[in-house]
User: Fold these one by one.
Assistant:
Number 1:
Amino acid sequence: MSFTRRSLLAAFAGLPFAPSALASAQTVGLGELAARSGRYFGSAVTRDDVSDAGPHLRLFDGECSVWVPTWQMKWGALVPTLGDVPDYRACDAIVASAAKRGKRLRGHALIWHEHLPAGAERLSTAADWRRFVAPHITAVAGRYRDAVFEWDVVNEAIEPYDGGADFMRRTPFYAMLGSDYVAEAFRLAEEAAPLARLYLNDDHLYYAEEWQERRRAGMLGLLERLLKAGVPIHGLGMQCHLDTRLHFDDSVFRRFLKRIEDLGLNISITELDVTEAPNARGRSISRRRLRAAAEAEKVLSVAFDSPALAGVVTWGLSDDDSWLRNRGPDMVDNQGLPYDDAYRSAPLRDTLASLFASTQTRHPT
Ligand code: G3I
């Protein structure tokens, strides 16, 4: 693995002789560092994280310029059972806290095949779309049109192994409108929230693995079809749930990002964290944290070279709250976020700081 100045900076970042540039970066919040580089930094948050009584509110406030509701904006969280009256209280609380603290909100996600209202999994006709889905998109995007600057309009539309020639995931939305559901969702979102940047969000697009190559092909094909049809889409959200077990080849990822740039789209990293526990192989916790930071630096340094990169969101700030730790017995102590279980800064935080501090976007914001 070749070492760049930046990777050396990042690799030693957690050690006592952190270079002065980095030392100052640790006193300045990641959101501020990102803004100085022409980008944004944020985190997924829950209602408790950002309530006045939130035990770590100071961290979510001090580190983030952007917040993303972890699940509270999803259809199933707003409408537990199809036909229910939506319950916006949790969302409204996050929106109010964001307004109070000057945070911008990424909306996540208007359309996703998971966390659906009970009964929505049976929807299958265009009439179902008109009766349930279209009003949902219009209502939520409209309600938060002044609070959400960037929406994940559709999440995880690609699944090459669902058997379709279009490499698209067969979901209830696909059953209702075929592949047109994506374009229709974006058009409805633009109508309801004309100022928001509208993103297609997905995962597993970064590693030199055959199954990810198929996903990249599916994603590029879908994006090209949407743009050719004049669909109002502004960016690709790459979740970046990274994994130390997978093979990375920077030229492969760089080539993919160049294709996205050539389409004129923004890129955002929308759910960054690192899975490292399953192949930790007896390494100490501190070595594992450095290894997670190095994995992030390896992948993100390519993304940070892209003029299209608009921002980075981590999927939480502390390992203590990470969804990854619920993914199996070998994941219970995964070290994959910028802060550890005790909310102490981890090397991944320094990696992000050094990436923001050592690069300037070439993106004409
Ligand atoms: O604790 C609350 C409970 O108080 C509340 O009454 C209940 C109502 O639904 O929800 C409970 O919280 C759960 C929450 O996780 C915290 O554990 C939600 O039920 C549960 O749905 C939620 O799961 C989230 C999941 O998306 C589904 O929305 C995960 O936190 C979240 O990490 C995960 O995030 C997804 C992204 O949206 C898309 N990319 C993959 C990523 C990981 O699966």
Note: The chain is about 40% helix and 15% strand.
Number 2:
Amino acid sequence: MITNNRLTPEQYAANFADIHPPFETHDAALVEANRCLFCYDAPCMKLCPTSINIPKFIKQISTENIKGSAHTIFSSNIFGAGCGKVCPVEKLCEGACVYNLMDEEAIPIAKLQRYSTEKAIEQKWKLFERKPSTGKKVAIVGAGPAGLSCAHVLSREGVDVTIYEKESKGGGLMTYGIAAYKVTPEFCEDEVDYILSIGGITVKYNRELGKNVSLKKLQKKYDAVYLSIGVGLTRNLGIKGEELEGVVDAIDFIYTLRDKGYSSVPVGDKVAVIGLGMTAIDAATQAKRLGASEVTIVYRRTHAEMPCTQHEMDIALLDGCKIKWLSAPKEVLGHHGKVAGLVCRVMELGTPDASGRRSPIETKEAFTLDVDMVIKATGQTPFIKLIEENELDNKSGKIVISNGCRTSVPSVFAGGDAVNGGKEVVDAVQAGKDGAKGILEFIGMWKAEVEPVYNNSVIALKE
Ligand code: SF4
């Protein structure tokens, strides 16, 4: 049966406590910082999409310059604190740390990153000064990581920024789309407030492109427009029974959990989650933590092709989620209009497809899962109708941009998930910086001295 309020307040608090507790003492952070070899041409830094100067910020921690360390991180990634919690570091910086080659524990880069940036947010350190207003005005649509990152770079340069956000809070995917035990809604609010504290950025909430905001009007009113509208809901499965009560969208499920609170989210007793990306893992683990007795992840390929990282997979397994490999949903069974089971087809792998992964092929074998809830997490679809209505060139709904992040519409720029179809938060932050650079060039404000502010790695290489 699907119901909410399955657990006590204490159980919810325990199940949704921060999965990565911070360093307990300053000395514990120093011990780890002092292990860093401060590598020349640091491989950790090369795998950071925002090029955070990792050896530099770790050196600053080891020399007790915590403010300097936070400044180094935020100069490259204004979401440095949140990314320290949600980045898949095992396939990025920490996965590249040279200690891995010595069969030793990698430097806990994310934990050190959080150490200085969380202090900066808690203590409201003012690390950036906005230049006096230049009178140039830019509109940004979407206050997610790409939009806010773009806004922060522009504001630092004295551009007056107005962000139009369809939700009642900023942060986008970070605020509404990630498991609450990785990053709490309260932390997201503090992070957004900290980013906005630079000044020069006005956010108009509950304003949605195509409903109460028109691109044509923004083009007239502003020197440039940046679209960071993200992507929409999960793709349909296209199978019988998908309309039954109890079939839900993973994005919706996670959104409600973060927006309304744990006890108000209905969850089944036995839940199937379709897909194996980060959203699928977040949905499965949270269904379990909300009190579902059984959660089964259904994935049509094998461990070798899974899109989530092993670290994510381990979280799901430790939470007690089961995985059905080489299985694809075929039909949702119903009883009185509600989910009563999920029929799955057993698959086998054929030749590699366009993504380079071997394609799953149906066999004649099938089985039925005894479930009362099905969560769909099979990838999000772009806002294709909105994009086409606004005459933006696109490829299957993904906005096409040229050099400088320009779209096919004059004075309109774009970046983030709306362009790449959905990547990590850290990729969206870099997209926002790229968008800001393109806009500054377009409005005649890109100068050589902006470069060090835009990309901190440049400072490091010159030092
Ligand atoms: Fe430090 Fe590891 Fe990066 Fe080298 S690769 S600079 S040891 S974190």
Note: The chain is about 35% helix and 15% strand.
